[in-house]
Specification:
The structure holds 2 protein chains of 2 kinds. Chain A is an alpha+beta fold. Chain A contains 8 helices and 18 strands. Chain B is an all-alpha fold. The chains are: A alpha+beta, B mainly alpha.
Chain lengths: 415, 364
Amino acid sequence: MRPKMILLLASLLLALGWQQSRAQKYNHAGLVIRFGDGSVVTACVQFDSESISGSEALRLSGLNVIFDPASSLGETICKISAGSNSDGCDYPLEDCFCQCQGADCVYWAYYHLKNNAWEYSGQGASNYRVRDGDVEGWAWGPGNYYGGGSDVEPPVIPFDQICHLSTPTPTSTSTLTATPTPTPSPSPTPFATDAPTPSPTVVKTFTPTKVPTRTPTPTRTPTLAPGVTPSPTPTPRPPIVIDFQLAPDIVIAGECAQLQWTIRNADTALLDDGAGEENVPLSSAREVCPAHDATYTLRAVRADSQQSESRTLHIRAPSPSPESPEPTPPPSPTPFLTATPSPTPAPTSVSTPTLAAGAPVATEPAAPTFQPISRLTPQPEPGSEGRSSLFTLGGFLIILIALMGGGVWALRRQS
Amino acid sequence: MSSHVVFHPYAWTLWLAAGMTAVLVTRNPLYLLILLLAASFLYAALLRRAQNSQEDAAHNRPMAWKTIVRLALFLWAFTILFNALTVHVGDHVLFRLPASWPIVGGPITLEAIIYGFVTGLNFVSLILLFAIYNSVLGPHTILRMIPGFAYQTGVAISIAISFVPQTVIAWGEIREAQRLRGHKVRGLRDALPLFVSLLGYGLDRAIQLAESMDARGFGGRILPVGRRETWLIRLSAVLGLLLLLGGLVVKAYYRSLPWAGLGLLAAGALLMGLNLWRGGRRIHRTRYRRWFWRPRDTLLALSSGLLLLGVLLLTWLQPRALFYYPYPPYDILPTFNPLLGLLFILPLLPALLLPPAPAPDASP
């Protein structure tokens, strides 16, 4: 009797688990994050389950986020960092809401884009389900003590401007129908009650033959590249896509610029900054402060092909009048918006209205403005804690040996 | 001084305080492992010493705590398992359970296993420290250390500690005697004679104890308190408590003035301490079997003070040195500073200074 029950239970659990692994359609959601100084970062996340939680969407975005997974309020977001922008509290060194300890409360407010307006979230990030086509918003700012909610909102950026699904990604385009739907309303797919398994890895090349027939869901493809047909056979590996940006590309000597890149469908990436090539992550950002004109070449390598792109940073001598540094860099905002030749349509056209709205950032000449990025593959940034070197490991072993010696000697003395 | 309390009890208490603080402020597995190893060697040395000595009281105590330590180790394993199965956060995924399984479904990450290990390590270290402290100082020695102003609590606890095992034995004897007489306990009504006998026995013992305490002059040297002194004690107690409360309120609601809250708390604590000391001063206690302070006690006190001070200074001035949190975005490898590691070896010092058990023929 008992072995039968075990067998029944095991097969039931396996059946439940099996159901999850059959979903292969990819969904996308957008994220808009507004930091305390007004700078805005956007990200597009890709997931293959019906829905993911808001905190999972933040994890997939590739930004550096510190969560408190076990707080009494559910999963709370303590700190978000993106490049040089970072707002929040270093949990667990400090309290997760370290700047919200009384009536003055500055924290990460959570919004959802509904009908082109931000709606303050009624649920926590771990409870809210993000579906295909949703746009999530996070804004760092003071809360409204008397009215509730928060005083600051991220800028309204529609889904189409965050997730550019016109670029030929291998299977997602071949399984989607070519129905351009401009309105970013969430797809009315029936909501499954079982928990999702979001996969943050690169899209697989497997295309089942029956998939093109079962597409009743309007999917978020505003424009589809012409000539893409659903292929019944497994396609060869898609071409490498490099999205390489340098902003600003003219600086005064001694100032810094921001290099940013996203590479898809490649194995390794090498960055040459004039001093030699070095291995870099496939998606990353870096601040560069050269003394002279410098050319940065990014090379994406794969077993069967490679591709490279270059950007040049021009150094201008500092202007003779020290009290007016403002006139010289104003040309820089416009060049970095349009002059970056990248295969993907640059999502930077939205940055002018948003940066103008967030006043302090656009008028500041010295600090490199962090323009909105869009990523599809999440890359967790390396942790900021120092790593133990060989010296400390050796120290630990020596201490252990000394401890063992002392302990054994003490034991010997007692017998 | 009797040999079973090898060091002065105050030195042992300082050792315990230092060890506890060191365990509670850090989650770094490397430092905690060093401390756990040091404490384990000390416990092993105490066990071996108790085996070789002839005093039964000291012989039993380290052994009695062995089961607790074993239980703590079992709970450590359980903590690792529990954390690994219920926390699904981390970058290093070992394997995935189907997400539809309740609670345990999802990725099983290395970070969760490590954090379970560290939490269990914390717990086992604390248990071991307390086991060592309790096996070296028996309950009576600990009770003797209770300061004068709380002497009534100390007396009540020591009577309870002595009475409880005796009551349990008496219960067994009464049950056996009644069974011999053919008395069967079927329900609550039949159990009534048992309770009545036990109550009578307890009252007899209480009267005997009260007579013997009176004969030894218990409570005779407590000086009476004048009216002025009573009012002084009461007012200062109220003032001290108000200062403590005020300090807490200021610390919570006026965060722009952090030192004001701490200052009020310190003033309140000082006032309460003075008050309690004054209250205890009027109770004179004679010492039977006095404790002597030896040079090795100074050494133990100094090393424990060094550990305590070092760890407290680190938490106030440089908390990152002792910090460890494996979940992203923090690094999974812990940092280690060999100098701080040396600090965490200090709890081993009593084992190094422990004299061997006296030979069976020698007097303690």
